[in-house]
Amino acid sequence: MFPHRPHLFIAPQTHLARRAALDFLRENGALDPFEPPVIFASASAAPHWRALFREAGANAPRLLRAEEFFVRSHRANARARAVSGRDRLWILSGVARNVAPHLEFLGKAVASREWLHGISAFLCGSYRALAPIPDFEWKHDFEILRAAYEAKLEELGAFDAECAPALFPQSAAQNAAFGWPKTLVWDETSEISPALRVGFEALLANCEFAAATLACPGGVLPKMNPHWQGAQKFWRAHKAKTVMVSAPKLHRDRCAAKILGQDNGASAPDNLFFTPCHTMHDEISRIAALIRRELNAGAPLENFALVIPQTDRYDGVLQSVFAAYGVPISLPFSRPLAQSPLIRRLLLALESCKNLWNVHVLHDLLGDGTLRFESLDAQRLRRAAFAARFFDLTDPAHTQTVFQTKIAQLREGRRDDETRREAIASALENDDLGAVSRLKELCAASAGTRIGARAWLENIETLLQKLAVHFEESDDLTDANELAHQTAREQLARLREAARALVERAGAWSGETDEVKRAPSEWLEWLRFECEAVQIEENARGAGVVISGATGSFEWRETVFFAGLSENAWPSPQLSGPLAERGRDAMAKLRAHEASPLARATHTLAKAVGSCQRLFLSYPQHSDDRENGPSPLWEDVRALWENTRWPSLPKLTESEAIQPLCRRAWLSQMAKIRAQNPDIWPASLTQLETLHTMREERRSPAQIGVYDGVLGAAGAPLMALERARWGQLRTASANTAKTENENGKTEREPTFSASQLELYARCPLRFFFGRILELAPEEPIGDDLDAREVGTLVHDVLYEFHRTLRAPLGEIEPATALGILRELAWKNCEKLALRPILREAEFHRLMGLNGVGGPLWKLLRAEFRAALASEGGPWSRPTAPIRHSPFFQELGKVAGGDTENWMRLGLEERFEIRVGGVPISGIIDRIDAASDGSLVVILDYKTGGAQGLPNLEKGDDGLSFQLALYAMRAASYFASWPRAPKLAMGFFSLKSGEFLHAIGQNQTLGRLDEHKFSQPRAIELDDSEWENWLRGVETRVGQIAAHIENGTFNISLQGREKAKCNFCEFSGFCGQHGPTQSERAAQFGGGERVYLPLVSEVGGTKSLNKNRKKSA
Q1: At 845, is the secondary structure helix, strand, or coil?
Q2: How far is CA 13 from the centre of its chain?
Q3: pLDDT higher for 709 or 242?
Q4: Edge-to-edge strand order for the sheet containing 209-215?
Q5: pLDDT band at 413 (very low <50, low <70, confident <90, very high)
Q6: How far apart are CA 194 and CA 173, in angstroms?
Q7: Beta bridge partner(s), residue 183
């Protein structure tokens, strides 16, 4: 046993405890120059220990983390390899592949690196806790993986680094040459796991001097501070002598104690500032401006420190803002290679190889010139694509044809056509599309099917060489550019090394040969992980404001800023990823020795309150396109001192603001300058006054004018030009109708669809952006089908299904019909331009696993129930597609119609009609009819649910046109028949497998209690109500057409939900302001200035749902 009891030094501040521990070692002769003390400390604490030893005139100690000491010692003692991080994941990947057939839940999941991370976290937790996997749903799978993993380690002659503390005592005892440390110091070792406890006990039994330090903010003892309870138990069990280091107790110490739970009645701290900021840029600007002010007043740089829990999110804004204010910053020595802008761009380029190609993706990759490929100019090609209104690069040869055709079309166009022609011609003349073709060929090898490690490495190195070859050229470069190129070359070399290391690691640890193939995306995921582990030296610590994470050292700084304190940023969750939900309780048991994230964060904050003269807390209210709330700790501290008016960071003065916070603030600032200096206002900046006027008028509820999209007298002439253009180059709809002008010549005019009318009704401005200006949102890039493509696929399958059937469903065996539907669904999925596995996934999405439970299966089930219902199911009489109706088949023969047209009749029925003089076009999904022709039912398929569909029970709000337009088309179609049928219409949800909202003439709807409508909204109208409803819709169609013709495209006066603002691609710049729009709606609703009709009652007939349910 050692001759001296362990000493535990507790102080309000860490540096006081460290100094006391050093004094103890010096007084007891423990500072042996030949055997310097071993100090277990974090990287951020190491400089302070070195400084203390220099002051004491002692030789530098041996500084390292406790875990690192045990790994090194056991590796040397056992002569075995240590496995951690990337190596652990590769071994897990290999063993998981071997045992996957025996896994009940995780068989497929283990192929994902994200899942491997979660599994690795569980294994590490069990090793640190010296405990088996706790009971939970996936325990059996984890035990299989753990056993296979440990068997592989034994085969490799390796050990897991997390096991090193527990393995160390035995290997050290077996190694007679092992040198036990004479003097040991534990620096702020607050959380001692069971595994570390085993290693520490062996060290304590063999060293002469042992000391430990703990910082207890406000003098709160460990037993009252949950962050230190584990350490307190450990040192008490080893009979350590506790030494309380005294220090003058200030008011801020009492505040720190109160934050840690001591009810001492302390008043609010006077050194604490709370500042909610608008954005990250605003937050960092205010911090940098304050530091700049104080530096100008003579404050030294070392007075300041900036703590950010998630420093990577602030990386770009930190460097740009602090540089703009002339404040030097001191960043860590190194950071991950993956955070380098150049490497991020290269990894993105590799990832984009598997995406659908379009101009936007290419511009994102090559537009700024960081990466280059041959003579391809992405900016030039993007200008050409906008000029041609064509952005797809899937087939560059086809794109070239489109460009050439567009040039020919533009020769007789408007005044700006020459500019557009030149933009397109420039891309063609410089062979940009030819370069795209060659780039696609190069990328094809990196984005194809599964590939072995060596082949993947060759493809990656070739692509990197092509994209970054310009960094090897150093002719005619300035010194600054030469330095940048040198840095780029070094980082490229590290990236290539990481790729080669990945391949070597796959072979050495996972046993992967060239026969084992992975998808390129999997290899890229592993490469990204490799780059996250590789460190690059970019910024040495020098004179500057120290920036660190939440675990950094900041106590001796007078002014400390804690920034980025948003919810979920600090404290961060203990477990994230795919295992976060099901594995939370199990992981909590394995980590029972650890303090909670909230306890750690509370301790850190209390330490800062007790040690800093000024402490500024801040967070951005808006970041990453979302609104943020503050950290829960922020709220907890404010709650301790209710009704306190906290000071905050000073706002930026006009002279300090480097750039305005937002457009509105900038315009307001310019307006103030204009008012204060009218004589010196430059004529070239009068547009600023107009912009400010526009902003103010848009917020005025009393008026609505040109700045809101209501063009007034100027609207009709402008729209006349647009109307002429619609029939030539671009159209507001997919179809045009022929008309004769005043000279007797035929010209094209645009037709409107129901969806376009509904778009205008909900938001005229969105109609203007999308249909008139044709501002196309960025197309999502991905392998899956989008909603429009899924809808097309569903309609194609159902069209072919009903064409294939030779009789109504009631006369066909369900198994036969299901077999036909499955076959047609598979045939249509096979045509999709997707990888085979994704085509199969689309088939299962339509039909369900094993062909059961999918949307099409639900539709077929509902159809059979309706066909076999005794009273017609959802309709008053049994119906079937028109082509299966004897009445209509006979009518077709009498009419002499050709067979093909009658075969198509009622399926994907295209039509054009005039409603109030307005040309309307559309497609009716399906028309069913009773066998005697007395009832016609129009069905529309919906791939979504009931949300957003019209609720006519509450009246017609003027936002829905589809059913009414279908009714008008049907009425005109059947008007010449011997006996006009009654009409009913409804929607069918493929998502829920139910008939949705319906409307019909008297005695057309059936038993809704048996064949329900989702959230049933079904009404019958008598003849007069039916005519009134259709007449009202006709009037509103005319109103919308007139508003469009007169140039009225105002910001929607509907509520956000009805206008669908949350799904609008233009919401970022439309200027919609809820309170203003509500006041305007009350003033202008029902008038002629804008389209905002009052809700009208559809009919007096009550909803059938209530009547039928009562009768049932």
Answers
A1: helix
A2: 41
A3: 242
A4: 62-64, 38-40, 183-187, 209-215, 7-11, 241-244
A5: very low
A6: 20
A7: 209
pLDDT computed for residue 905 by the predictor? 66
Phi, psi of 441 (to 5 degrees): -60, -40
Contact 996, 948 (CB under 8 A): no
Give percent above pLDDT 70 in the chain.
80
Q: Which residue type does 796 have?
A: D
CA 239 and chain centroid, separation: 52
Q: Count how many Cα atoms sit within 13 Å of the Cα of residue 54 in the half-sphere of its side chain.
A: 6
At 21-59, the pLDDT tens digits run: 999 999 999 998 888 999 999 888 888 899 999 998 999
Residue whose entry in the numeric block shows the structure tokens 């750690």: 600
CA–CA gap between residue 874 and residue 858 (Å, rounded): 15
User: Strand, helix or coil at 1019?
Assistant: strand
What mean pLDDT is predicted for residues 1042-1060? 84
Question: What's the pLDDT at 781?
Answer: 40
* Calpha distance 750→587 (Å, rounded): 63
On whether the CB atoms of residues 1061 and 1072 are closer than 8 A, the answer is: yes
**Predicted model pTM:** 0.56
CA-to-CA dists, residue 485 to 370, 691, 934, 1052, angstroms: 11, 43, 80, 52
Angle between helices 113-129 and 194-204 (to 10 degrees): 40
pLDDT at 150 over 90: yes
φ, ψ of residue 493 in degrees (nearest 5): -65, -40
Q: Do the Cβ atoms of 1109 and 973 come closer than 8 Å?
A: no
DSSP 25-49: HHHTT---SSSPPEEE--TTTHHHH
Residue 130, C-beta contacts closer than 8 angstroms, at least 6 positions apart: 166, 194, 195, 198
Cis peptide before 701 (omega within 30 of 0): no
What pLDDT is attached to residue 895? 42
Please give the biggest Cα pair distance in the chain: 118
Task: Name residues whose C-beta falls within 8 Å of residue 616's C-beta, 6 or more positions apart in sequence.
Answer: 273, 275, 287, 290, 559, 560, 561, 562, 649
Contacting residues for 950 by C-beta, under 8 A, at least 6 apart: 956, 957, 959, 960, 963, 997
Average pLDDT over residues 719-729: 61
Tokens 């299989």 locate to: 144
Q: How far apart are CA 707 and CA 711, in angstroms?
A: 8
Non-local CB neighbours of 863 within 8 Å, separated by 6+ positions: 809
Query: Cβ contacts of residue 962 below 8 Å, gap of 6+?
Result: 754, 755, 758, 922, 940
In tens, the pLDDT along 923-952 reads 888 888 888 888 888 888 887 665 656 666
